[in-house]
Each structure stands twice: as structure tokens, then as C-alpha cells.
């Protein structure tokens, strides 16, 4: 995690390759197949960082925002052909990446309780998500129980974005 002025072109390229171009390539290929058969569901794993500003996460948040936008645009283009496109936007989840982010000043406690000086509200639920909690939301979205959900973002972050 660095400030925006500290990133070089190589970091920009790598972050956008993984978090924007990778999902774009997958959704484009899947979208073509699903549109030709007249049904399907594409779920992009985004991040709540795409919609809330966090210090030290400028490139990551921007790349995830690009991925969210691409997913929604594809959803709009393919909706009439029976393809649903959705974004699941997790907050901090127990992963190798979150363990690396614990190295920020204040560590895990600051991530959970928030740091007003760094524009972080914390996680009101008081814990990181488990990967299976994110996966269960994706499972629901691709099921027959969610067939009218389309072109939207489901945020799974324990309340840290504080949306009404």
C-alpha cells in the first residue's frame, strides 16, 4: 500500500492487468457464449474499494471500479439476450492480501475499528469476512432463486461502506 504519487507505471500496469483486464477477458468470452445460447449469469468479484476511497488503495480501487463498470455495461448490453451480469463487492476478507494489509499502521485492529484520520470507518460487524461467506452470495446469485437480479452490485462487507 503506497500513496498515489509513489506508484510507478509497472505497478499501475500490474494492478490493472489483474483487476480490470483479467475480468474483462473472462466476461467477454463468457458473455459471447452465454448470449449465443440465450441465458447465463456472470458474477465479477469486485471490491468495496471500488466505491469508497481508502488511503493507500488508489490503484486497486480504481482497477476494481473499472471492473465494476465493465460488468454493468456488459449486463446492459446482454440483458435482452438472457444474460445477467452482477458484481459481488466484498470488504476485507480473510485472505493472503488482507493479512498483508494488516501491516498498515495499527494493523488488524485499525482495519476492524477504523481510523478516522485515514478515512476508514472500520467494520461494524467486528470481523473480516470468511471466503465461504462471499462464495455463498455468489452461489445464490447464480441460482434460480435470483433470476431477476441483474446489473447490480451486492456489497458483502460487514457494513463498512455504511450505505443507506
From TrEMBL:
Keyword Magnesium included in the entry's annotation: no
InterPro entries for this protein: DHB_DH (IPR003560), NAD(P)-bd_dom_sf (IPR036291), Sc_DH/Rdtase_CS (IPR020904), SDR_fam (IPR002347)
Top-level taxon in the UniProt lineage: Bacteria
Keywords, ordered alphabetically: Oxidoreductase
One MF annotation (Gene Ontology) recorded for this entry: 2,3-dihydro-2,3-dihydroxybenzoate dehydrogenase activity
GO biological process, one term: siderophore biosynthetic process
Sequence similarity: Belongs to the short-chain dehydrogenases/reductases (SDR) family.
Record's protein name: NAD(P)-dependent dehydrogenase (Short-subunit alcohol dehydrogenase family)
Lineage: Bacteria, Bacillati, Actinomycetota, Actinomycetes, Kitasatosporales
Amino acid at each position: 500500500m503506497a500513496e498515489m504519487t509513489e506508484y510507478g507505471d509497472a505497478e499501475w500496469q500490474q494492478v490493472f492487468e489483474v483487476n480490470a483486464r483479467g475480468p474483462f477477458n473472462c466476461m467477454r468470452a463468457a458473455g459471447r457464449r452465454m448470449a449465443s445460447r440465450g441465458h447465463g449469469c456472470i458474477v465479477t468479484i469486485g471490491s468495496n474499494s471500488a466505491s469508497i476511497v481508502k488511503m493507500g488503495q488508489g490503484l486497486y480501487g480504481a482497477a476494481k471500479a473499472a471492473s465494476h463498470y465493465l460488468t454493468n455495461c456488459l449486463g446492459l448490453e446482454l440483458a435482452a439476450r438472457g444474460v445477467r451480469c452482477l458484481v459481488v463487492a466484498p470488504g476485507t476478507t480473510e485472505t493472503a492480501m488482507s493479512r498483508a494489509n494488516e501491516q498498515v499502521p495499527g494493523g488488524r485492529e485499525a482495519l476492524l475499528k477504523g481510523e478516522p484520520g485515514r478515512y476508514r470507518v472500520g467494520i461494524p460487524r467486528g470481523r473480516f469476512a470468511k471466503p465461504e461467506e462471499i462464495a455463498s452470495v455468489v452461489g445464490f446469485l447464480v441460482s434460480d432463486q435470483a433470476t431477476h437480479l441483474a446489473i447490480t452490485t451486492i456489497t458483502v462487507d460487514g457494513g463498512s461502506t455504511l450505505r443507506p
